[in-house]
Amino acid sequence: MAKLVSFIASSSSVSSRARASWRDYYEMTKPKVLMLLLLTALVGMCLASPGWVDWRVLTIGLVGIGMLASSAAVINHVVDHRIDSQMARTFNRPVAKGKVTIPNALYFALTLGVVGFLLLALYINMLTAMLTLAGLVGYAVVYTMFLKRATPQNIVIGGLAGAAPPLLGWTAVTGEIHAHALLLVLIIFTWTPPHFWALAIHREKDYAKAKVPMLPVTHGVEFTKTSVLGYTVLLCLVCLLPYLVAMTGIIYLVGSSVLNAGFMYYAWKLKFAADCDTAMQTFKFSILHLMVLFVVLLVDHYVPLSL
Ligand code: HEM
Ligand SMILES: CC(C)=CCC/C(C)=C/CC/C(C)=C/COP(=O)(O)OP(=O)(O)O
């Protein structure tokens, strides 16, 4: 631990030393991202159960998954504090600003990680604990420490960690990996590139300044817009799979088609008729898209409607 702290601190540009409050610790867990991750995990749990999910699995499972995902987010704040301090969107973050020290952030991450892992391992099952730990390592280590700095395909590969929660919810209930759970993972995996690259187009100068090799920086904005459109088409196709394999019903088919039509509208506009707000509008719509899509999956599961 001491060696890790001194390694990270040696590249530190942290200067100011304002007092940290509980809000700084809360912010480091990326609470809004966490809420959406937990919604997808909850839907994974519900779709794995014929009826209601056992309340014990639901609460302990979501708390455990949430704590490990938060731990990963805190580690991301520590590892990225130098990059964060150079970008307008992130310069005010607690570690980048020096409000939370690197050792305190790491102790916070360690506590969240250990308690979250033990909850899953002792009260849910070892498979869920290990898969969630793999998600933490995938995001905090593989993506943040290596891929983010190495390749513009960083978020495509790293996106697997963020896509994992429906599978984690599913295994929390059944203790097994099921093909239907992997379909939910595939949806989020395909959704991630248009979600992130839309924002990266809007923030291209920020990433260039911090020398982070995101796609608009390395391959230009036009190529990134084409990639957003390509992945959105792919997402529309992948979203049909749950209906085609009879995992979902007509409510899902109609709901997901409306949402995908919306995403296609923004991706098309971004490529062929963009104004200065379109990239940000596409990014915001991507979040609404995923949130409503998973609510629709839930409604479809509990409201039997056969046509
Ligand atoms: C490698 C994969 C991903 C990358 C690189 C990525 C990147 C980002 C970035 C840079 C932001 C802006 C954060 C800010 O404004 O400070 C963001 C916001 C957001 N992301 Fe993602 N994201 C990924 C995966 C996900 C996943 C899997 C989810 C949920 C299932 C998600 C949900 C959100 C939400 C809800 C926000 C809005 C946060 C806010 O308004 O504070 N993201 N994402
Ligand atoms: C399931 C589990 C245990 C895994 C954790 C997954 C997790 C927290 C995913 C979050 C994805 C995310 C917000 C990436 C931001 O990328 P970035 O770090 O490049 O963005 P930033 O510049 O806003 O920090």
UniProtKB/TrEMBL annotation:
Annotated catalysed reactions: heme b + (2E,6E)-farnesyl diphosphate + H2O = Fe(II)-heme o + diphosphate
Protein family according to the UniProt entry: Belongs to the UbiA prenyltransferase family. Protoheme IX farnesyltransferase subfamily.
CDD domains linked: PT_UbiA_Cox10
Pathway recorded for this protein: Porphyrin-containing compound metabolism; heme O biosynthesis; heme O from protoheme: step 1/1
The organism of origin for this protein: Alteromonas pelagimontana
GO molecular function, one term: protoheme IX farnesyltransferase activity
Subcellular compartments: Cell membrane
GO cellular component, one term: plasma membrane
Membrane topology: Multi-pass membrane protein
EC number: 2.5.1.141
Name of the protein: Protoheme IX farnesyltransferase
GO biological process entries: heme O biosynthetic process
Chain segments annotated as transmembrane: 58-79, 100-123, 129-147, 154-173, 179-202, 223-244, 250-268, 280-299
Principal subcellular localization: membrane
Additional note from the record: Carbon 2 of the heme B porphyrin ring is defined according to the Fischer nomenclature.
Job description of the protein: Converts heme B (protoheme IX) to heme O by substitution of the vinyl group on carbon 2 of heme B porphyrin ring with a hydroxyethyl farnesyl side group.
